[in-house]
User: Fold these one by one.
Assistant:
Number 1:
Amino acid sequence: MNIIKELKKENNKESRKIMLDDLGLIRNITDNMNEYLMNSYDKQIVKRDLIGMAQEMKLRGTTLRDELGDNVDEFTKEIIENSRGPSKLEIFLTTIKSSAITFIIIFGGMLLLSKNFDMSMSIYFPILVYLFLGIQSILEFIFVSAFNKEKNFKKYIPNVIRGLTFFIFFYYFIGNKIARGGPEVKIVCLVIIHLFIYAITYFAYNKHIENLAESSDDIVKDLIDKTK
Amino acid sequence: MVDPSQMMRGTLEGCIIKIISKNETYGYDIVSKLKEYGFTDAKEGTIYPLLVRLERKNLITAKYKESPLGPKRKHYYLTSLGEDYLDEFLKIWRDVRNSVDRIMEEVR
């Protein structure tokens, strides 16, 4: 079972029963809980709890927004600080999974459009892209955690750093032909390798989420109604 | 001037654990009991982050149960670690209360 997918489905279903304003409020709160601050499983459980609170408040004639008042940022910050935090393994697996699917689409697209299955490219290109993604992830992890509590322009510093590393990396390495030299590898092989990478990371990710959910397995079973 | 909510905030976790120790309970019920006993500022928005922390520390655990009011409700239970925490909290609270009472009565 893909627990995150099931929880998201359940949350989407339950969120239809709350006031639109509260739905917007819950989205704002959970949008601030990115994977560098909180793991995906805990984020969906928090979302479920907030939806449950909003549903009960609707039945009692009030709203979640009235309950939280002006303290939404403080409320969000406290939940993040009191949660289990991010999962480094989840960030790693998500990055590799997304990269793999991106490469499959790009390389597969190149092959299909050119109809030349003998096409090859420098092995340095995918290696450098993975290196760039790795550095980006580490920087994101450091800077998002550090600047999460900042207000005004300081909270955009992670975006600036992201843009700078992208520019430096692609201008310096790719633009300077470093990625164009070296041994060549068939693009078909790259597509097959990335299909394997995607499959492995897909199952590893699901297993990791199951492990995160293990301590609260009853919650997942209780929430998801399999008899419908 | 003295901020009573600041003083109460330091003991809120212990009070929430005590309430949960009596019976399994849920957020709204915890807030109602806290208000009943003088925590007039208590709201589900205040206590939810504390409940997240208590769950993370394995002092409480939770289960979703059917509710007569509509959606499934998250019910909280005390764990054995939570019982130990409560015993320790009560001991510390009594010590602090006695010390403060003595200072207020004896220091003039």
Number 2:
Amino acid sequence: MKYIDEFKDLVRGSGILKEIVRLATFKVSFMEICGSHTHVICKSGLRALLPDNINLISGPGCPVCVTSQPEIDAIIDFADSNKDVIITTFGDMLRVPGSSSTLEQVRARATDVRVIYSPLGALSIARQSPQKEVVLLSVGFETTAPLIASVLQTAQAEGITNLTVYPLHKLTPPAMAVLLDSKDMRIDGFICPGHVTAIIGADAYGFIAKDYKRPCVVTGFEPLDALFAIYMLLLQIKEGRADIENEYKRVVSGTGNARARAIMDHVFEPSDALWRGLGSIPMSGLSLRDDYMGFSAAKRFGIDITKYTDSSKGTLDCRCADVLRGVINPAQCPLFATACTPTAPQGPCMVSDEGACAAWYTYERTAVAL
Amino acid sequence: MCLGVPGKILEISGDMATVELGKATVQVSMQLLDGGTVGEYVIVHAGFAIERLDIDAARKTLEAMDAFGELS
Ligand code: SF4
């Protein structure tokens, strides 16, 4: 495919790889925030090509994975006790283990749970079934939140009243600050998420360069993009710089997509959010503004998150919380590839394609065994 | 989730565009962009165009990558 295939060819990157090997005379750890980057790094076999000095850590960039256990439990309970509503959500949500069930199991118990590929799908279901309540369980970062906002604007304009949303959106920069403040490990540089940054703009990471003196490189989603970003980060460190650089100029600008942000800001306002692994982070989530409160599923159906506690862990030994903070890699979880596999996932990181455990299971198991 | 794929706009009608994504043709909302032109490439995420793809910038990045090959 055009503007994809050209960036896939790692042979084209052999010169970059040589430079990386030349520069990597010291140990560094880089974190890729985005789950899609984790996926491409694992799938392309990049880790095996890189010098041992370079440690790539996966971050909290899989939206399903960072959704907290109380929230997962709340939505599963809601779905289980409301057989007359239509629940719409993205596919990854179905198999995430709750404390006692999954949405997939709830669906087998006769709740109408439908997988959508776009939030526009929820809107068309609401249009087609005006006598039914349609609930959109929406997860995602800054890339996805404007889409949900746009759908709600349309619903508002059309006077659609049978659509509500349970927003579980998360904002990226506040989580990066928490990781940088953590004493668990040191991150020497960030591979910044290309499509989140398409919306928020590369300038949004200014505080990381300025206050934390760590380099950031925004990059695309093909193997060569990831490779080039690693080179750019290494070069910055070698030259003693901490700048925000952009490898993904074909899509991302310094200021991002102002129109998408305006739509998002019109519908949502920042609020505190609970992350799996990272805990509660101030102003790292999105709540509906007063004008859009009519679309709140929590309000309409009285979903009360305070009834659920974080001690209601899905599976006791799942180490997703540590995987998401980059404290361990998936293979260091005792359940990895034994009790926990993609067919029998014990935690969300093994469910989603973007989850680090699933990516490691699919692509890095041989490397682990060696 | 943040998966975004580049596709070429074939047709625009109101807020929606027909976009060629590899061998498939999909309907995409253009509500998050300030307009769009037939022939332009956009990044498609979950049924929406979230940004344009700048072809010159893509070419420049590839040239920068290829320059390494010549060094070695
Ligand atoms: S391997 Fe499974 S149990 Fe272990 S952290 Fe990953 S998802 Fe959780």
